[in-house]
Design brief:
It comes from marine sediment metagenome. Keywords: Coiled coil, DNA recombination, DNA-binding. InterPro entries: DNA_bind_recomb_sf (IPR038109), DNA_bind_recombinase_dom (IPR011109), SSR_resolvase (IPR050639), Zn_ribbon_recom_dom (IPR025827). By secondary structure, this protein is mainly alpha-helical. It folds into three domains: about 120 residues, Hect, E3 ligase catalytic domain fold (Alpha-Beta Complex); about 55 residues, no CATH class; about 35 residues. Helix content is about 50%, strand content about 10%. The protein contains eight helices and six strands, in the order αββααααββαββαα. The strands form three sheets. It has a two-stranded antiparallel ribbon with strand order 1-2. Strands 3-4 form a two-stranded antiparallel ribbon. Strands 5-6 form a two-stranded antiparallel sheet. It is flat, with a radius of gyration of 27 Å.
């Protein structure tokens, strides 16, 4: 029974892989023909644009398209994303979800400036004539350049710490938040464990020294390195033995 379940699971995973590959090939072929290959989310994909299934193109949404155009033009003229957000919220402008338009919605809209100029992209393939342009290609280029400059001049650009996402709290097991200015701490609470962790906040430099020292000790200790290598080899031999046993059973069944 266990062997039969293993074979069925393997066959199912192989079939699922083939279906995914076939689906991707079909979508790529559609994009190369100039057709839109996939769906665009809960709200049709973009603020002010709605996907029309009949014509397979994006059409303007009355009211929303004017708001999208205002955001794009104001940003191209030098207004900040935050000032645009506050201005629209003061006028009680709603987003696609029916709630007050949010800063994140405007950020996403600006990041798709080229779409509003009439150009879609799927898998690196540019699709034209499927979106009614809201702005010109020149304005879209200005917006993209501003966004690029903002990323490059942001505090965290190119400064990701080598141990970000790799440090976990020894008390609760949650991932550590790494902040150079405010210090490092665990996430405190999560959906899996509502009890707040009382682990202390550690200064960034102190945590960096402790981690560096621990890594140097782990890799400089000859006995520890040999022990890890032996453990890895034993695990590999055990896995190979299990695979060979399964293969022998399959050969016998066939």
């Amino acid at each position: 029974g266990e062997l039969l379940n293993f074979v069925r699971g393997w066959a199912s995973s192989l079939e699922a892989t083939k279906i995914r590959e076939r689906s991707l090939r079909n979508k790529k072929a559609m994009a190369e023909r100039g057709d839109i290959p996939s769906g665009f989310g809960r709200y049709g994909g973009y603020v002010g644009l709605q996907y029309d299934k009949a014509t397979r193109t994006f059409k303007h949404i009355t009211g929303q398209t004017d708001v999208a155009k205002e955001i794009l033009l104001r940003y191209a003229k030098g207004a900040s994303c935050l000032s645009i957000t506050k201005s629209l919220q003061a006028r009680n402008v709603l987003g696609p979800s029916g709630k007050l338009i949010a800063h994140g919605t405007i950020n996403r809209l600006l990041s798709h400036a080229r779409v509003y100029a009439g150009f879609l992209k799927w898998g690196g393939i540019e699709i034209r004539d499927k979106v009614e342009p809201v702005i010109s290609e020149e304005i879209a280029s200005i917006i993209e350049k501003r966004l690029k400059l903002n990323r490059e001049h942001s505090f965290g650009f190119g400064q990701r710490r080598w141990f970000s996402g790799r440090v976990f709290c020894g008390i609760c097991g949650r991932r550590y938040v790494i902040q150079q200015r405010k210090g490092c701490r665990c996430n405190g609470t999560s959906n899996l464990n509502a009890i707040k962790c009382n682990s202390p906040r550690v200064p960034y430099r102190k945590l960096e020294r402790l981690l560096t020292k621990a890594l140097l000790f782990a890799y400089a200790d000859e006995e520890a390195v040999i022990a890890r290598a032996m453990e890895a080899r034993e695990n590999w031999q055990r896995e190979m033995g299990e695979l060979q046993g399964r293969q022998a059973k399959l050969d016998h069944e066939l």
